[in-house]
User: Fold this.
Amino acid sequence: MNKYQKLISNTAILAIGTFASKVLVFLLMPLYTSCLSAAEYGTADLITQTANLIIPLLACGIVEAVFRFALDKKSNLARVFTTGFVVICAGVALFAILSPLLSKINYFGEYTALIIAYAAASCFHSLCAQFVRATGKTSLFAFQGILSTLITIILNIIFLVACDMGVEGYVLSVVFSDIAATIFLVITARLWGALRFDRFKLSFAFEMLKFSVPMIPTTIFWWITNVADRYMVRDICGKEINGLYAVAYKIPTLLILASGVFIEAWQFSAVTEKGSREHTAFFGKVMGSFQAMMFMVGSVLVAFSKIFTMLLVDPSYYTSWRYIPILSAATVFSSLVTFMGSVYLVEKKSILSFVTSFIGAGVNILLNLLLIPHFEAIGAAIATFFSYFVVYIIRAINSRSYIPFDLHNRKVAFNTAVILLQSTVMILEVPFWIPMQILCVGLIVGVNIKPILVGMMKLIRRGR
Assistant:
């Protein structure tokens, strides 16, 4: 199996597991929006996002290091896994000790224990899942994603519908599903065999932390870019608008889910193919197909933003559709930025991920402060788009100093212009906006579909 076929194979397996499972949760939006008011949904969203903020601090970014170091052919897998486990245990203990202080922070408050439980369960689940993925057990990695999702769905029905637990039920369903998935992975992959404390070495732990620690501010800066606007919207515009904005954010996650499945498979291929003669060409060809697919999906999300909102959320949330077009354009560039980040993963240049994400966070905060007071949540969406766009430009220039692959700049520029025009037309509902949406989708599909079809034909021929 050549590298292209392996990439497609891993993507397909992950798509069956990861994407399918995430879509099931996505389809629960009508349940969430009917059981939770806009204010409650906004609160639940802020709890999970606050937990996502402390996850890199609690784990010292070690999960990313476990994945990267486990991919090295000469690595001691037991030492890698044990190091990750020890670091996470230390982080959980530290945050448990600090919990009385954290409870005094505004966004922790009465939910401190819930936030720490969410973060701890997520860290242990991610450790086991990413270790299994790095060791080539892609099917098991995908299956545990489905299992985790099914447990989440069942618990959501029990906690939200049967028990009417509200915000707490929404969060606890994720916590318990993470715990269950972790136990499943430990048993099926026999991870107790990889937990060898006699293999733990402080010098190796420092080596892993040297890679992972720069990922901590990197993850925090991405969190700022993705989430800080919701805190600002809540404080400036109120809980109701923040709830609508949080719901609107869920629609473009379809694109993030699709790209995330591919990126997981791509990172494995990008690292394992390092050093091959066709590595640069491999990056360029994959980038061409990836950006084409992202713009096509993003364009469809913009065009059907009203329909998706009507189908997926309670009628009381309908006005949230206005935020979807710009957020869809933003998620396209979020995906492209993540693809560029694979260059830093391959070269172990985590410090560059830190620098570029810092710039993106700075742009995001500045624009949020300028735009939200005047344009409310629309301003937050615009700030998110431009912050990702700026990071894309920087990474596009910088990453090519390590791997000089083809960025397909003309197509990216054309696609960007069209999807921004499409978003503007949609939000303003200008006269004849429906045929204009059809025209924009047709233009993006027409420009991008050919290279994807050609690439698929080449893969089929090589497989013969």
